[in-house]
């Protein structure tokens, strides 16, 4: 505080947002959003028409979209980031490009930050804080974090929402809803994607993120869940300095969790950090059913004493927690690659919906168990899996519950962090302490019984492991049984063949119509009906165009078939 009792605000050197308030007229904003949507649709239509649907082209289009989302600002940056976890909704190339979409939004000025604090807390800044650092510790698309000190001497961080953000969200979501309704009305092909449900999902998700009271409550719940873990730190919330747009938290500094050189220089055992990180995540997911759905490296840090600090509780997800003996059973089911048991647990947790034909889900879980059990999780392998799903569900879109996609994304992110710390690490080995912890700290007879039984079964299973030849025959057998590969592929093949026949017949009809109208027009032209002849010429032109479109579709279909057969 300076002599006049006012806090001096140093000017920040960081570039500041020119459009800090995001005030647009509804008309201008509608124009901006609709322009991007229409251009994207036209690009996609053009690619489809010209058969230019290569992965390179999709990357090009996705890069263009990322640029536009950045220009459209916070709402769209957040939607893009949320979409980047949805390999079940959008093509892989878009997933890859959108996952590079960072909150590269310049910070807003400290004067604006102070104005928000004073308006929200209803008091001048100097009565609230003894010190307030004008240069933010971090700035993202939704808000920025400033360090401050209370009059009682405690160091805190103040997270301030970007001015005008809520109004922008309201306007953008209203316009997006309008777009969804228009799409459903005029583009019937879009209906099968159930855009309304996707819109609702994103709407709820993003509105939660701009309510800091909600975030503070999440932080309290998370801290309570980890109260017996003395190596986990969750900053306290200062509720008297918190509103929907201002969140004041205890200042808990740390080293960024993936910063291996600094961790090693501070003599922190990185293997220990990995084990603790995995244990914390498994606990969140399995024991509490309440987990951080976006555990990126900025949301976790390590204290000088090796404790893990969690920041940011804006995006928490919930699943049904499972009983501990079920957890042990599932753990062994993963070890034994028992697809059915794993699926039963996923259904119970609400992560998979039981449907009549569980074949694709079984294939997916089987693939995951094969791919990831003993190896590091590789995003590319997940992409390969999504590729298979895309192929199978070309005609019938397949949606995973959002929680499942959060878990997959979280696991791949955590895996990336763990590998940055120790390239040799193994997920299952790192998960052992968690299992031991639940088995031996609770001392429940029931649980120990399950553990003993499962261990005995597992040893028996290991002893009865078939030879390599038997194993490959079994695998072939189970693949046939699981995927009913031949039957399904043939059914897709026959659907594609049917589509080609339809296109062939269409082309034939258009050829006949074009030929017939052209001849009729030529005959009438030499007679007295010149005006009718002109109309018929125009009509034959139209048939030619439709013929051209159907031939292009046919060529496109041929190309797709060739790619699939490769
Ligand atoms: N309690 C805290 N103590 C110390 N530093 C903190 C604290 N909370 C946040 N930070 C710092 O601020 C950064 C951003 O915080 P946080 O993730 O909560 O903000 P955000 O606006 O939600 O960002 P994003 O959306 O990118 O995750 C953290 O990475 C951390 O460096």
Automatic annotation (TrEMBL):
<comment type="similarity">
    <text>Belongs to the protein kinase superfamily. ADCK protein kinase family.</text>
</comment>
<keyword id="KW-0472">Membrane</keyword>
<dbReference type="InterPro" id="IPR011009">
    <property type="entry name" value="Kinase-like_dom_sf"/>
</dbReference>
<protein>
    <submittedName>
        <fullName>ABC-1 domain-containing protein</fullName>
    </submittedName>
</protein>
<dbReference type="Pfam" id="PF03109">
    <property type="entry name" value="ABC1"/>
</dbReference>
<feature type="transmembrane region" description="Helical">
    <location>
        <begin position="508"/>
        <end position="526"/>
    </location>
</feature>
<dbReference type="InterPro" id="IPR050154">
    <property type="entry name" value="UbiB_kinase"/>
</dbReference>
<keyword id="KW-0812">Transmembrane</keyword>
<keyword id="KW-1133">Transmembrane helix</keyword>
<feature type="domain" description="ABC1 atypical kinase-like">
    <location>
        <begin position="101"/>
        <end position="345"/>
    </location>
</feature>
<dbReference type="InterPro" id="IPR004147">
    <property type="entry name" value="ABC1_dom"/>
</dbReference>
<feature type="transmembrane region" description="Helical">
    <location>
        <begin position="532"/>
        <end position="556"/>
    </location>
</feature>
